[in-house]
Every structure is written in structure tokens, then in C-alpha cells.
Design goal:
mainly alpha, 8 helices, 73% helix
Amino acid sequence: MKNNQKVIHFIARAISMVFHPFILPTLGIILLYHSNSYFQLIPYPYRLAILMTFCLSTLLVPALVVAIMSFNKNIDISFRETKSRRFPLLFTAVSYFAGYMMLAHIPASGIFRIFLLGAIIILIALLTISYWWKISLHLATIGGLLGGFIALALRLNFNPWLSITSLIFVAGALGFSRMFLEEHTPKQIYAGFSLAFLIEFLLITFI
């Protein structure tokens, strides 16, 4: 029984790391490029520039800041406490905004800017909530991606069923993992997912 628990714990921890909030936005763009939509028709140099902008502003820069913070022994980089989340969330929102501004100089990036704008709004909401409650960042990230994909499918009239199915599966796996690891309660998981889903879905649908 103990061995089974260890295996499940290892799998849950691996899922949390592979689908980390820093990694998911870049994975989402890669998934969007392979969703049988007009995004595949965007010239390769533009697609590469958009992907690199997302990778820089949503993954590399935030991860570098957290890595630098890890040298300070007084800072808990696991972000289990709400107080330890505030500066990383604030800096990540700033980094996302820088990416949003950079995308303005890349042709065919309009919908991607809306996607990133939604992510910035989500981060500000998470930062505000984190002053008194530990909402799930993992589920907020996957919720925003799923909401964005569904909104894009409806807005652009295409059917990325495989991408949406994959994101639903990842959301379920992440929800289970975060609860199994006792990082979040069900309410914190549902709240993070629902909040981000609605923000991204409504923004892409109506802007």
C-alpha cells in the first residue's frame, strides 16, 4: 500500500511539474499551431516570433526570477503560502505585459495578443485573491487555456477537438494531482479553473 502511495505521489508531482503554470502557455501555443486551423497558414517566421515571445515572457523570464529568488533562504519558492506568491505573480504579470507589447510589432499576432491580455487579467485577479486565499495557479492556467481554445473554436469556426480533449484530460490530471499532494482544496481548484476559464472565454468571444 505504501509503495502504491509513493508511486501515485511521484506521478502527481511529475504532472504538476510537466504542466507547470510557467510551461503551459508555451505548450498551448504549440498546440494551437497544430489544431487544423488558419494559424497553420501564418508564415513560419511570424509563427516562430510569436512562439518565442510567449516562451520568453511567460516561461523563461518568470522562471529566471523564481530561480534567483531561490537563493534567498527566507523565500519559499514552493509558493505554498499566499504571501510567497505575491511578488512572483506581480512580476509575471509585468513580464506578460511586456510580451503583449512585443506582439504588437509582429504581424498576424492579433488573436495571440488577446490571449495574452486575458492571461494578464487572470494574473491580476489571482494576485488580488492571493492576499487572503490560496487559489490554484495550476488550474487557473489550464482553465484559461481551455476557455481560450473553446472561444477560438466558436469564433473562428474550426474544430480543435483533439486539443480541447487533451486540455480537458490535463485539467483533470492536474486537479487530481494538486488534491492528492494536498496543495489545494477542491474549492481552490474549482475556483482557479472557473475564474480563468470565464475570463479567457469571454475576452476572446467579445473582443
